[in-house]
Design a protein that fits this description.
4-stranded antiparallel β-sheet; 5-stranded antiparallel β-sheet; about 425 residues; alpha+beta; about 25% strand; flat
Length: about 425
């Protein structure tokens, strides 16, 4: 049953992607050695390149981002007091910062620590504080994965290395980063390349944590102009994985890959892939007014797009060569662009009524609510009638029996008087 559900989920994801926000790349993509990877434009949500994007892999590096997402969206205390039982599950093969029981941290600083470092004691403290236990936190992560539409993702641990039990795909990681990229705290945290935990009552010396890939330093070998975030991880059986994005001119490109042979190859591919996206693709803008004019609905029907639409197209494709339309189905308007290798669509607005039609539809809606209320009342009466009638019948029977008993006793008394 579990296998069939996962197969169905994979097929559904691929179908949705093909029929929705996918663009096939015809430009020369750099050679990619990773067995699974995806390159997307987070603004238009288009896939510019994919290789095994729906292939299940161990979550590894992406687990850190789900931990961050879960902590940011949790309703919990902002100050964290470390307990000894939280640290008892630490083993010697796990990297650690050296946190001890009794230390206190701001929740935001622990979240920052998860992004910048691989120190497992930071992960444990975050998980136990937010989820009350590691298992509780993992359950929250899985709940969030479902909410984000990550149908091919499941977590068992906060490390993401439990083979055969937990999995994700590059496409699902894209969905996660897309959601995170809108969060103000996440934007703040990803600006840091290092952070220093100050001394406290339990620790006399400051502790600095530093990002493994120093993408924001022009002197670093990993530097790439406009780099926004980077998190790389390695696992002996999985190889090297990375989540990497670049922001230029309000256009953010995301690269996710799993299974590279080394950190060098992993980072180099990330840089080449994102540079390819900026050099071989450009952004075409369709304004709200343009989209409104494209809608050819019936009289007294209109749409009200909430934002301009950005479509990523190959650099040599001109906007005039593309065919843009707005189609309506079930009162939902969908904007579509096709031509020269471009295939894009996005829901832009609900279809609204105006004038006499608005009034008439309002009246019909009120009538439907009234009819629904009447039907509900009838059903309620019918449901209540049975127990009420049974109770009434029993009560009537008891009264009848009492009367008969009273008559019988009266007759017996009259006989005795005779």
């Amino acid at each position: 049953m579990k296998i069939s559900m996962r197969i169905t989920a994979v097929i559904l994801t691929i179908v949705l992607s093909i029929s929705g926000l996918i663009m096939t790349s015809f430009a020369a993509m750099p050679e990619i050695h990773s067995p699974s990877a995806i390159l997307t434009d987070l603004n238009s949500d288009e896939i510019l390149y994919q290789k095994g994007a729906y292939k299940e892999v161990l979550p590894s590096v992406s687990t850190r981002f789900m931990a961050i997402y879960t902590a940011i969206n949790a309703d919990c205390e902002q100050n964290v007091a470390v307990r000894q039982e939280w640290l008892d599950s630490l083993t010697n093969d796990r990297p650690r910062m050296g946190i001890v029981a009794g230390e206190e941290f701001a929740l935001k600083d622990l979240i920052r620590g998860v992004y910048l470092s691989d120190n497992y004691d930071i992960y444990l403290c975050l998980a136990n504080h937010v989820g009350s236990s590691e298992k509780g936190f993992v359950n929250m992560m899985n709940t969030n994965a479902k909410k984000l539409g990550m149908v091919n993702t499941h977590y068992e641990t906060i490390s993401g290395y439990e083979e055969g039990k937990e999995y994700t795909t590059p496409y699902d990681v894209h969905l996660l980063i897309k959601a995170l990229s809108k969060n103000a705290l996440f934007k703040e945290i990803t600006k840091d390349v290092s952070y220093t935990f100050k001394p406290n009552k339990k620790r006399k010396e400051p502790v600095e944590i530093r990002q493994k890939l120093n993408i924001n330093d022009p002197q670093s070998q990993w530097y790439i102009s406009g780099s926004k975030l980077a998190k790389e991880d390695s696992y002996k059986k999985l190889g090297h994985s990375i989540v990497f994005s670049v922001l230029r001119d309000n256009r953010e490109i995301l690269w996710v890959s799993f299974g590279s042979e080394s950190t060098d190859i992993c980072a180099t591919q990330a840089g080449e892939a994102t540079e390819f996206a900026f050099s071989d693709y450009k952004r075409v803008i369709y304004t709200k007014e343009e989209i409104k004019k494209l809608y050819k609905g019936e009289k007294n029907l209109y749409i009200e797009p909430t934002a301009d639409i950005y479509v990523t197209v190959p650099s040599d494709v001109e906007k005039a060569s593309l065919i843009a339309t707005v189609k309506e189905e079930d009162r939902i308007a969908t904007f579509k662009v096709v031509g020269n290798g471009v295939s894009f669509e996005k829901e832009v607005s609900k279809v609204k009524a105006s004038g006499i039609r608005f009034i008439w539809e309002g009246i019909l809606k009120i009538i439907r609510w009234i009819l629904a209320g009447i039907i509900l009342l009838i059903v309620t009466i019918c449901i209540l009638y049975i127990p009420v009638s049974v109770i009434s019948a029993r009560k009537a029977k008891r009264l009848k029996e009492k009367k008969e008993e009273k008559v019988r006793r009266l007759k017996e008394k009259m006989k005795e008087n005779e």
